[in-house]
Amino acid sequence: MSDNNFLIRIENLTKNFPIYKGILIERQVGAVQAVSNVNLGIKKGETFGLAGESGCGKSTLGRTVLQLYKPTSGKVFFRDIDLTLLKGEELRQARKHMQMVFQDPYASLNPKLNVSRIITEPLEAHNIGNAKTRHEKVLELLDLVKMSRYYTNRYPHEFSGGQRQRIVIARALALEPEFIVLDEPISALDVSIQAQIVNLLEKLQERLQLTYLFIAHDLSMMRHISGRVAIMYLGKLVEQACRDELYGNPLHPYTQSLLSAVPIPNPKRERDRRRNILEGDVPSPINPPSGCHFHPRCPIAQDICKQEDPEWREIVDQHWIACHFPLEKK
Amino acid sequence: MSKKILEVKDLKIRFITDFGTVYAVNGVSFDLYEGETLGVVGESGCGKTVSMLSIMRLLSEPPAKVSADYMKFKGKEIQNASEKDMNKIRGNQVGLIFQDPMISLNPILKVGFQIMEPLRNHTNMGKKEARERAYELLCLVGIPEARKRLEGYPHQFSGGMQQRAIIAMALACDPSLLIADEPTTALDVTIQAQIVDLVKRLRDQFGMALIWITHDFGLLAGLADRINVMYSGYIIEKGIVDDIYENALHPYTRALLQSIPSIEGKLGEPLKTIEGFPPELYNPPNGCPFAPRCEFVKDICKQENPLLIEYESGHKAACWVEIKTGELR
């Protein structure tokens, strides 16, 4: 995967969270393997979707890419710069090009700052412009996210969830980043507001040539917004392909059952639908199952799946999968 | 023709607060037949949860103020029923499941004890018998190693398992009606599919009536017989499930259906949006509550609130406009 088209390139990225026990003498008794050995590349200007159940490590992956968590091992390249080697001021400068939008717009805005302060904060932190140009920037950003210019002196509690998310997006855009990690940006919003925010994100992408890493568990919205999609299970990527290929022709048994669990808003289709519902829960990432992590829930697991971790391989052109027995192509 | 299990006529709920009166539910009427599944769909704050809570008399008055022409459960008026009579209905003839399983379970009591509680209260089962029944119930809802799990505490259960335990509790006394208030919203999509499947199976096995409250239109497609769409404390459209999805009469229902993407079907167009946000419930506007966000809005919409009228057989809507033509009806 050493293609130069990639804006972000992730190589063998692993993130473990150590577990300590003991009060006076702390010792490590294990680790949560949140992300293990992930490889992927995100092209400039695309929306890369990352989906999976809660606890599969998708948010950790997003944060590790931005170096909000220091990776345990592996590399993250932004253009040709290895972010994992950067420290201090260098890292701070690199971060200017990367921003994040979090799930909960209630938790990600400081309730004591007004809209203007919230949006200028990143500019102040990077010493960009003076008071006047910053104020102009705020107005410009408010226009961009379709908020009224009169809102500059208001506080977060005066806004609804959707409006707050717009403020969060405006703040993320303040430094004119190239890459934004969207960590479940719509799951806390009401149904009629979700579409507004998604359309806004798509418009902004087109206008500002942004690159998105879109993290979500909503596979229908994922299909709408993403160009390529990767599915994650218990810290590992299990399948990755372009959108139409992944939804039309899923080859990993996990992807297939995940898709069959998504309800279709059409009563006739729902009635004739044959579903394969997964049994059981996601196992703990502290003690992941041996071999293929998915084998205890897999309907077609065989002996080799319990022993050997399947290799991450390109099975068809641009369609990557980690499975010993990929399903037949339709 | 099966019998009506629940009849509600002109239910109104107000909350009297220091800041003014909140008009939470404004004249909701519906009937539910035995063995039938009713889906109630709407965004947060549309009154779907409070109306169900008020039917079970679980709202504290004050601050709430509930009134209705009638509210009948199995033909009997329950509006003025004593707390003692209500206790005989709640948890016994009606089972309730709420959104967050973590909050619905008592963290310091064993799960087995909590499932035995309704049995001990509502039936004259002895402790041993109740324990045996609790074990059967846990098996019924598909919890592995049920015997051991009876002795477990809620925090030892995963989210999906907790919700299963709550379903077991709700079903303990063989209710004839199960009210589920967004029971899968806090769960992952694969676990959601498990729970929906389980509830469907149990509903068919025991012939229960089911009210399923949700904001997710997709989910109801495969589950409900009839659907009530709520907005700002009103039922704005009701009908059988196929009619609602294929031939929505209210602009809100139609826009909501078009704003959710599907894992099938065409791509490449921006999602349809509903501009603005739901109205404040303090000062409901005159006229139709949806008028400020509606694409078909006419003068009359801002002045008079349309009534819920049957426009097609079994399919009612509250709208002045015929949305196929965009003209007044």
Task: Write up what this structure looks like.
The complex is a heterodimer of chains A (330) and B (329). Chain A is 32% helix and 25% strand. Chain A is an alpha/beta fold and 330 residues long. In chain A, strands 6-7-8-3-9-10-12-11 form an 8-stranded mixed beta sheet, with helices on both faces. Chain A has a 4-stranded antiparallel beta sheet with strand order 2-1-4-5. In chain A, 43% of the residues are buried. The model of chain A has no long low-confidence stretch (mean pLDDT 89). Chain B has 12 helices and 15 strands. The A-B interface holds A 53-54, 160, 162-163, 190-196, 198-199, 202, 217-221, 223-224, 243, 247, 257-271, 273, 275, 277-279, 281-282 and B 43-44, 158, 160-161, 188-194, 196-197, 215-219, 221-222, 241-242, 245, 255-257, 259-264, 267, 270-275, 277-278.
Task: Give the SSE layout.
The complex is a heterodimer of chains A (330) and B (329).
Chain A: E1 6-21, E2 27-43, E3 47-51, H1 58-65, E4 73-78, E5 81-82, H2 88-95, E6 98-101, H3 115-125, H4 131-144, H5 161-173, E7 179-183, H6 191-208, E8 211-216, H7 219-225, E9 228-233, E10 236-242, H8 243-248, H9 253-261, H10 267-271, H11 303-307, E11 313-316, E12 319-321
Parallel strand pairs in A: 3-8, 3-9, 6-7, 7-8
Antiparallel strand pairs in A: 1-2, 1-4, 4-5, 9-10, 10-12, 11-12
Chain B: E1 4-17, E2 20-33, E3 37-41, H1 48-55, E4 64-67, E5 70-73, E6 76-77, H2 83-89, E7 94-97, H3 101-104, H4 111-122, H5 127-140, H6 146-149, H7 159-171, E8 177-181, H8 189-206, E9 209-214, H9 217-221, E10 226-231, E11 234-240, H10 241-246, H11 251-259, H12 299-303, E12 309-312, E13 315-317, E14 321-322, E15 327-328
Parallel strand pairs in B: 3-9, 3-10, 7-8, 8-9
Antiparallel strand pairs in B: 1-2, 1-4, 1-5, 5-6, 10-11, 11-13, 12-13, 14-15
